[in-house]
Write a structure and sequence with these properties.
The structure is a single chain. This protein has about 200 residues and is of the alpha+beta class. The chain has one domain (about 25-170): Aldehyde oxidase/xanthine dehydrogenase, a/b hammerhead (Aldehyde Oxidoreductase, domain 3, Alpha-Beta Complex), CATH 3.90.1170.50. Helices cover about 20% and strands about 15% of the residues. A 3-stranded antiparallel β-sheet has the order 1-5-3. The longest helix is centred in the middle third of the chain and has 10 residues, at about 115-120. It is flat and about 75 Å long. The two termini are about 35 Å apart. About 15% of the residues are buried.
Length: about 200
């Protein structure tokens, strides 16, 4: 594939309006699930109120971590969340603390997308903001900790060496020192991940 220009296969159906997306699939009794996500990058969660959402027409359920009680699981993590690093857990629904914008706090299920949108807006979340650690440098310099019991905010330290770098640099005709930043990359699909079950 390197150097090749393969012909695209997916364009014709999309250009002709023949794409098939999750919202094109309908079934009798179909309900829709939405997620209430944190608007804070780092905060204590003091309240997640789902009662108003539950009372709305067409709402099947609205749950927070408190509603799930002891059965609220953690998201399965690679290597149990502790491969060569410090142990950590990612809850399915945040309970007392959010660590990033978009962290799930509650789920709502409703009979229509319009009812779902209204119900998501009806869930009330209250926060006590904590210092946001927006960069690796800020996270390493801050006394705030994302995970309780960690001495700092480094999940994993990896070191490696091949050859004698110091000797090679000392004998080089030219040494360039530069700091390079690489942006986060993401695909931009017409439809994000979804499932019909």
């Amino acid at each position: 594939m390197i150097g090749a220009s393969p012909r695209r296969k997916e364009d014709q159906r999309l250009l002709r309006g023949g794409g098939r997306f999750l919202d094109d699939l309908t079934r009798d009794g179909l309900v829709h699930l939405g997620v209430v996500r944190s608007v804070e990058a780092h905060a204590r969660v003091t309240k997640v109120a789902t009662e108003a959402a539950r009372r709305l027409p067409g709402v099947v359920l609205a749950w927070s971590a408190a509603d799930l009680g002891a059965i609220a699981p953690d998201v399965p993590t690679a290597y149990g969340g502790a491969h060569k690093g410090r142990p950590w857990a990612q809850p399915v629904l945040a309970r007392e603390l959010v660590r990033y914008v978009g962290e799930p706090l509650a789920v709502v299920v409703a009979e229509s997308l319009a009812q779902l949108a209204d119900a998501l807006d009806a869930v009330t979340v209250e926060y006590e903001p904590l210092p946001a650690l927006a960069t690796a440098e800020a996270a390493l310099a801050s006394p705030a900790r994302l995970h309780e019991g960690w001495p700092d905010n480094a999940a994993l330290v990896a070191r490696g060496a091949v050859g004698d770098a110091e000797r090679a640099l000392a004998g080089a005709h030219l040494v360039v020192h530069e700091r390079l930043r690489h942006p986060r990359l993401s695909a931009v699909p017409i439809e994000t991940r979804g499932a019909l079950a």
